[in-house]
UniProtKB/TrEMBL annotation:
<comment type="similarity">
    <text>Belongs to the glycerate kinase type-1 family.</text>
</comment>
<dbReference type="InterPro" id="IPR004381">
    <property type="entry name" value="Glycerate_kinase"/>
</dbReference>
<dbReference type="GO" id="GO:0031388">
    <property type="term" value="P:organic acid phosphorylation"/>
</dbReference>
<dbReference type="Pfam" id="PF02595">
    <property type="entry name" value="Gly_kinase"/>
</dbReference>
<protein>
    <submittedName>
        <fullName>Glycerate kinase</fullName>
        <ecNumber>2.7.1.31</ecNumber>
    </submittedName>
</protein>
<dbReference type="InterPro" id="IPR036129">
    <property type="entry name" value="Glycerate_kinase_sf"/>
</dbReference>
<keyword id="KW-0808">Transferase</keyword>
<keyword id="KW-0418">Kinase</keyword>
<dbReference type="GO" id="GO:0008887">
    <property type="term" value="F:glycerate kinase activity"/>
</dbReference>
<dbReference type="InterPro" id="IPR018193">
    <property type="entry name" value="Glyc_kinase_flavodox-like_fold"/>
</dbReference>
<dbReference type="InterPro" id="IPR018197">
    <property type="entry name" value="Glycerate_kinase_RE-like"/>
</dbReference>
Amino acid sequence: MNAVVAIDSLKGSLTSMEAGRAVCEGIRRVYPDAVVSVRPLADGGEGTVEALVSGMNGELRTITVTGPLGQPLECSYGIIGSSGTAVIEMSAAAGLPLVPEKERNPLLTTTYGVGEMIRDAIARGCRRFIVGIGGSATNDGGAGMLQALGYDFLDSDGKPIPQGAAGLERLASIGSDNVLPDLSQCRFCVACDVTNPLCGELGASAIYGPQKGATPEMVRQMDLWLGRYAALAAKTFPRADASFPGTGAAGGLGFAFLTFTDAVLESGIHIVLEETHLADYIRNADLVITGEGRLDGQTAMGKAPVGVAGLAKQFGKPVLAFAGCVTEDAVACNQKGIDAFFPILRTVTTLSEAMEPGTAMKNMAGAAEQAMRLWKACREAR
């Protein structure tokens, strides 16, 4: 028995590797000599650093950066092995949960701390970056991040513009004379699963601004400022293209990466599957097991378990999935490569009890064991 297990984290309960190890335990209750490869899984958003660091012998580095409202903030990023690859979640330095609801105002929030994380990783020898940009509190077009990396964003008096989207109103010139020299050697794989352009009705300000605290008038202003910023950037930086899909991600951070660094925007799950070399493990497997905390119709629209299932089907492998809970519309996952899925709950319980890590581990292992008993019985009956 050769099984590959790649399960996304059960948010607030189990990490990706913890969930995978629980499945491994269940498998070995039925197949004691099974070869089980537990691989980390994430979709490029929350949990990506944790999954890749714990699953690929990486290290977690904690530093103090500038938070979204300009305050000092401790945050962490990962460095994977000897590959010189840094794994960063922008939300660790500029995420919406870091800003109290009553203080949410994208005119003031900055991505400066994201640039400080990148700068620290460069100083430690990293030249390859995986960056998740979901969950931002910002709409500054990535100006803060770029300032931290040495780009000069100046007003008409030659002074640095203030932090936050409001600073873009005063932007008169962008210079690169003081950019960190090693930045030109860096390559960024940016996990981006949205296609919004920088400006307009589907742009960063209009679509995501309100959830960050923007009023209709603020949305109008920020969209105007981002448009001016993009036009100014295009005069000096030939890669500037405000209409490119994904440039509106994270309040324009997608635009900043594509315009001012050597970057590509890719599906988060695609990046993780490539980085973990999951195909090499699946190739010779008898069975592939995946899952996440909640399996539903959204899962079928490209979330991590369906990414695993799609890869498995390229090799003709059967796929099972386990989840903390399963909704009625999860049946759509059966058309996306997941042959059968199972909720792991075994009794009526409260949500907090079900999410208790020890309980979740026990339930996951138990569900996997029973599925393996069925698997074994069917194979022996052939």
